[in-house]
Amino acid sequence: MAPTLIGAAEADPSIRFAFSDADVGNVSLAVGVADTGARMRLASAVGSRAGHLVFMQQVHGGDVAVVGRDQRGRGLEDHADGIAAVDALVTTDEDVVLAVLVADCVPVLLADPGRAVAAAHAGRGGVATGVVGATVATLAPDDPGRVEAVIGPAIGGCCYEVERELAEAIADEVPAARATTTWGTPSLDLPAAAAAQLRAAGVERITRTGGCTRCTPSRWFSHRRAPGRGRQAGVVVRAPDGSAPGRRHA
Question: 183-193, pLDDT tens digit by residue?
Fold first, then answer.
């Protein structure tokens, strides 16, 4: 089954993105029972192959790595072989499929039309350490206004309950993160925080898709709802043929 959220950058149809869901299968090798075909289906959705994927050993930090064709396949068959100690990837090479794994954290896919793409893992730690802004600065340091960003499925402020002290500490740094759960307790809205950090970095074209992972158990993996069950992924690539995969789906 193909990922349900597939599209292309508005200003550059050669840049393709996709987000997998639970129906595609568990894309993680480190959490839950891995689905051997899920990564192949994910790469196929953006017109590429599994061997062109690049994965990270995500650590909830703020570091960014620039990768190229030589890194294709990193982390594909062994989690320990993923790009170490980073939470964002940037490439200017064509046909390098950047992947971010999530199950409540925020996947952010970015495109600098005609030039480069990026994928960032913006969990609570990544928001606190500014991984989104660091990714934009690495992707398009001279003109971030060119960048298009897509924020994928992640836990929302409706469900991401945290202790009041933690909520206040994060919200003091990123006010957009301040939220309240549907049952009235302090929470963090990480997608809103990521969007605010994108805007602060100079990105104006921002799309949110997929909704809250915890709210929709039939569609998304969620660590808060079912720890250890699996991960979905976001991927982005600049295709060499310049063709578009189709219209954007919500």
Answer: 999 999 999 99
> What's the whole-model pTM score?
0.94
Cβ burial of 181 (10 Å; 0-12, 13-18, 19+) is middle
Distance CA 48, CA 57 (A): 22
Residue range of the domain that includes 55: 5-150+216-238
Residue 195 domain flag: no
pLDDT tens digit string along 63-114?
A: 999 999 999 999 999 999 999 999 999 999 999 999 999 999 999 999 999 9
Within a domain: residue 245? no
User: What CATH number is associated with residue 11?
Assistant: 3.60.140.10
DSSP helix/strand/coil, 163: coil
Structure tokens of 160? 């991401």
Residue 201 lies in a domain: no
Rounded to whole angstroms, how far apart are CA atoms 131 and 106?
11
